Amino acid sequence: MTKTLVSAKDLRKNYGSLIAVDGISFEIQEGECFGFLGPNGAGKTTTVKMIHCVSPVTSGTLIVNGLPAHINNRALKKMTGIIPQEITLDVDLTVYENLIIFAKFFDIPKREAKKRIAELLHFVELEAKRNSKISELSTGMKRRLLVARALLNHPKLIVADEPTTGLDPQARHLIWQRLRQLKSEGVTLILTTQYMEEAQQLCDRIVVMHQGKILKEGVPSKLVAEQIGREVVEVRVPKEEDERIVGQLTEFSCGHERVGDTLYFYCRDGQGLMKKLVELDLHNYLTRPATLEDVFLKLTGRSLIE
Amino acid sequence: MNLSYRIYYIFLRNLYSYKRFVVPTFLVSLVEPLFYLVTFGIGMGAYIGYFGGKPYLYFLVPGVLVSSVMMTSSFECLYGTFVKMIHEKLYDSLIATPVSAEDAVAGDIAWGAFRGLISGTLMMTVAMVMGVLPASVLSAALLLALMVLVGVMFASLAMIVTSFSPSFDFFNYYTELIITPMLFFSGVFFPLDKFPPWMKTLSEFMPLTHAVKISRAVYSGTLSSGLIWSLLVIVVLEAIAFTIGLKSMKRRLIK
Ligand SMILES: Nc1ncnc2c1ncn2[C@@H]1O[C@H](COP(=O)(O)OP(=O)(O)O)[C@@H](O)[C@H]1O
Ligand SMILES: [Mg+2]
Q1: Which of A38, A168, A252, B211 could pair with B66 in a Cys bridge, judged by C-beta atoms 3.0 to 4.6 Å apart?
Q2: Alpha-carbon distance A92 to nearest alpha carbon in chain B (angstroms)
Q3: Are residues A123 and A270 part of one domain?
């Protein structure tokens, strides 16, 4: 039996005259990893801020753990762990002090807090930095400390807002491992990301957000299969050739799209198409598995999003 | 308003961070009173001589005491809070915990008042070493209580300014146009009797004037019923400033 942990209906958020979240509805089940995927400014942060009760809802309903999300809802804040998009560590304090003070905010008794901090510093591999100042940490270390901080209160729900933005691959993989480990322990995870790979690595279900709206919802692999197919073939040919090439490839029933200098084919069977391309004497092509990135770009448009 | 015991946690957080600055701030808090007391007290005192039967320092000390509380509490909740809010984004992480925005702001006001109390106490200690003693132990205790009251008032007023300040520079308006003039219009350095009536009226509107009146009376142990009015002004203004400070900071913190 799965239980709904977060349920949003026609959720809206305006900042003055700017519509940041434009009437979205979704449900998040207990124990799953739910991803908000979208470009900068899509409204991901605004949405999760409403979920974890630091930003008031403009209209619509938002229920978390059976309670309406509200900025004064201390009970919800107590059961939630936040890994914020911006690094909001206390730069006046050391690593250890950051954690011990945060534990206080959650009314965790000192003895328990000390034990928990030792465990968590181990969990995020920061034991050696226990007494360092925040300014002495690398970005990856800071992000790991944010993870540790978010776990102090044994949260039932973790909200991770672009937790790996700006990290090198090693640091990113470490964070992914830790998040997966938490999920396996039964924690519900809400993730926002601009990285398709991250969503594919971690999420059971995702929504693609764009300009405050949800464009698509689903399981990452199925979304790719439904929207794109199995493979993508990219052909670099001048635009004028499109009609001729597409005309000769009708038998393969591939979707196609022209963006800039490239003609994209979305196929179930890329092999046959490739053979045909060689026959047509077109050698400047590339074939690769379809990814969430293709879904994302197809839904939001391949043009540059500012 | 959503206030709770968690105010104390914010106070504690500030205490943790303060550990690193104790020595420099104590030095500043010691040098400042020495500067006032030595230059004004001794330099000017030499010209003025006796003042209501006592050396000028006895007139000066109680006024400078509450002024230093005003300065320290104000600056803490202007610059200190602004840095924490804008540069360090500390409040963003606080309000995501069970600590409410009101708790966080009230905790900073309490901290500002505490810093004021430290300054005032250091100043009183210096004065006592220079032989300017409060009338009794009770007087000294009452002075400490007064410092807390004055500290919370100016910390709250500063919080209001911080809540709508776009940048550091904006604080100059407040310190130059409000705080500094108050030092000269509130009877800290000289009595107000010789002021023309309009200036006297103006000074009645300055909270520092009332704080100085009470401080001076308590220091010399000459309490009178007229002080109740001054106390009332301070308490009422404090309650209003505290409420507005919390509300307007909350508006800035929660978007
Ligand atoms: N505090 C705020 N005040 C005004 N506008 C905001 C604020 N926060 C976000 N916005 C705007 O709301 C929109 C959505 O932002 P955000 O939720 O941060 O998107 P994302 O996290 O997907 O990048 C953007 O246009 C952004 O400029
Ligand atoms: Mg964001």
Answers
A1: B211
A2: 5
A3: no
pLDDT (tens digit per residue) in A185-203: 999 999 999 888 888 889 9
Q: A43-97: per-residue pLDDT in tens?
A: 999 999 999 999 999 999 999 999 999 888 899 999 999 999 999 999 999 999 9
ipTM entry: 0.89
Residue whose Cα lies nearest atom 20 of ligand 1: it is A41
Confidence of residue A303 (pLDDT cuts 50, 70, 90): low
Residues A231-250 have a mean pLDDT of 83
The pLDDT of residue A306 is 40
> Which CATH number fits the domain that encloses residue A234?
3.30.70.260
Size of interface A-B (CB pairs under 8 A): 67
Q: Tell me the shortest Cα–Cα distance from B78 to chain A, in angstroms.
A: 17
Cβ distance A101 to B254 less than 8 Å, yes or no, reads no
Pick from B148, B78, B103, B106: nearest CA to B2: B103
| Beta-carbon separation of B88 and A92 below 8 A | yes
Domain ranges for chain B: 7-253
Question: Which ligand ends up closest to the CA of A21?
Answer: 1
CA–centroid distance, B15 to ligand 1, in Å, is 34
Does any domain span residue A29?
Answer: yes
Give me the number of domains chain A comprises. 2
